[in-house]
Amino acid sequence: MKIRRGFVDTENGQIHFRSCGAGKPVIMLHQTPRSSDEYLEVLPLVGSKFWAIAMDSIGFGDSYRFEGEMTIERLASGVVQFTSALNLQRFSLIGHHTGAVIAVEVAASFPSKVEKLVLSGCPYIDEKEREKRRDKRVIDSYESRVDGSHLIQLWNDRLQFYPKNRPDILDRFIIDALKAGRNAALGHIAVSNYKMEDKLSKIRCPTLLIAGTADPFAHPHLYKLRENIVNATVVEIEGGTVALLEQMPEKFAAAVLNFLSS
Question: Cβ distance 140 to 232 under 8 Å?
Fold first, then answer.
């Protein structure tokens, strides 16, 4: 199935996206500091039954950059700008890692817009988790160096969380991280500062929680999330890592399609 690329115009700038398929719209949100490229393998699978649309979050990929603080609320406003530009009144929403946190904000703050919600690799961010993250070095933070050693740093930071023998996935990560620049770290800071516990109880749509068992940032939080979201179901994918979408697209898409079609 052919994947098409395009831009929509908003009052703040252009937002880039990839899409395929037809029918009910399903918006897909990537992790930091990736782009819609993260959904390349998933798009045609979901697009077999739906209009699958993966957008570059504002500040990432080829979407517009903005001034001021990066927050989850601001990133969520980019999703609303995007769907409004496409004249979408209602849609299903998939988010992975940072994208999942953004999806929480959209579903909680704009409940009439979200038909179904898929949170993949979503952390649980409460005051205890925020405190734990405060003094830690932010992953994907880097300064360009003339010897190129920042590329090795970026690669090694992610290597332990990615599937073995898949340098192709890390290649794609590096491209997006370099394009994001300082936003690569700011996206993670936005997640760490987000008061998720105030929003989860406001989610009313059917919700699917997905986590790979080898994802240390998400899998330990899976059942805590389910306790805090009404009408949530859980799917665990054995051996799935932070790079679940590229690593196991068929298993991921099967879980998503089963949920969206039910």
Answer: no
Q: Is the peptide bond before 33 cis (omega within 30 degrees of 0)?
A: yes
Q: Would you place residue 136 in the very low, low, confident or very high pLDDT band (cuts 50, 70, 90)? A: confident
Domain that holds residue 166: 4-261
DSSP, collapsed to helix, strand or coil, labels residue 255 as helix
**Distance of alpha carbon 131 from alpha carbon 254, whole angstroms:** 36
Number of domains in the chain: 1
Tracing tokens 């929403």 back to the chain, one arrives at 93
* Contact of 171 with 196, CB cutoff 8 Å: no
CA angle 94, 99, 101 (to 5 degrees): 100
pTM of the predicted model, to two decimals? 0.98
DSSP track, 139-150: TT-----TT-HH
Residues near 128 by Cβ (< 8 Å), separated by ≥ 6? Answer: none
Which tens digit of pLDDT belongs to each residue from 150-193? 999 999 999 999 999 999 999 999 999 999 999 999 999 999 99
Q: Please state the length of the chain.
A: 262
Residue appearing with tokens 């929003």: 199
In which element (H, E) is residue 29 found?
strand 25-29
Q: What is the CATH number of the domain that holds 64?
A: 3.40.50.1820
d(CA 112, CA 194): 22
Q: Which of 19, 23, 14 is nearest to 40 (CA)?
A: 19
Contact present, 61 and 16 (Cβ < 8 Å): yes
Q: How far apart are CA 83 and CA 85, in angstroms?
A: 5
